[in-house]
Amino acid sequence: MLSFDILSKPGERDHNEDYAGMQQRGEAYCFVLADGLGGHGGGDEASRMVSECVLDDFAENGIVSQRYLAARFEAGQRILLQEQRRQRRMMEMKTTLTVLLADSTQVLWGHIGDSRIYHFKGRKLHSRTMDHSVPQMLVAAGKLKEKKIRGHADRSRLLRVMGVEWEEPQYEIAQPQPYMAGDAFLLCSDGFWEWIQEKSMQQLLKKAASPTEWLCKMEADVCRHGSGKHMDNYSAVAVFL
């Protein structure tokens, strides 16, 4: 029904705090990507814990619905806060989270933080999630141009993440979209999209016959632009419908 591939690399860091994975239940798929925050032993634990909370439940109960997806974000938040309190590491264990669900009729996604989900239709960029970050807020206010997000001094200042107490949900759930053969999706951490422009993503997609080929071409672009510049962990999930 669909094809996919996943990559997650440490970049020029000594430890990878990203997590990327997939789970399938019948004809339904769940793709997850998270970027942990909080340093060695905190961020990686947070991203893994929240991602596995989503994937493990999907294997048993997963369906493609907004209610189900929201419930997984809520469950991941509860588990992470509980573990923070247990370890007394409230300031260290936080993470972004992106989730893409798909079955034979529809596709649905949600996110929190600055890990992104890109949607391509007809091999052209159709939309992307908006970062929960200071630069994205400045763009929304008309004080910064979109292209200036990359490299901005406050690019890593996030306004919403998993692992911070909230009174109301801080994640965003998209409206379900019909399953359209030929559509493509890219989930990626900021360590990935920081070093590749959307125009390049689109051009490389047009040349790629598979998700694996697309990821390989994009990774080469990421490494070419980021090498020697203290590259962060970078992770991506490519999905072809």
Structural summary, described in words:
With 241 residues, the chain is α+β, with helices and mostly antiparallel strands. It is built from six helices and twelve strands. A hairpin with a 3-residue loop joins strand 5 and strand 6 (106-112). The longest helix has 22 residues, at 66-87. It is globular and about 50 Å long. The protein starts with a strand and ends with a strand.
What labels describe this entry?
241 residues; seven-stranded antiparallel sheet; alpha+beta; five-stranded antiparallel sheet; globular
In a few lines, what is going on in this structure?
The protein is α+β, with helices and mostly antiparallel strands.
Annotate the secondary structure layout:
Elements: E1 3-9, E2 18-25, E3 28-37, H1 43-61, H2 66-87, E4 94-95, E5 97-102, E6 106-112, E7 116-121, E8 124-128, H3 134-140, E9 172-173, E10 177-178, E11 184-188, H4 190-193, H5 198-207, H6 211-226, E12 234-240
Antiparallel strand pairs: 1-12, 2-3, 3-4, 3-5, 5-6, 6-9, 6-10, 7-8, 7-11, 11-12
Q: Which regions have little confidence, pLDDT < 50, spanning 5+ residues? A: none
**Helical content (DSSP H or I, runs of 4+):** 25-40%
Query: How is the biggest beta sheet arranged?
Result: 7 strands, antiparallel
What would you call the structural class? alpha+beta
Work out the strand percent: 25-35%
Number of strands: 12
Q: What are the secondary-structure elements, in order, as H or E?
A: EEEHHEEEEEHEEEHHHE
Helical segment count: 6
Radius of gyration equals 17 Å
How much is the average pLDDT? 95
Distance separating the two termini:
7 Å
Overall 3D shape: globular
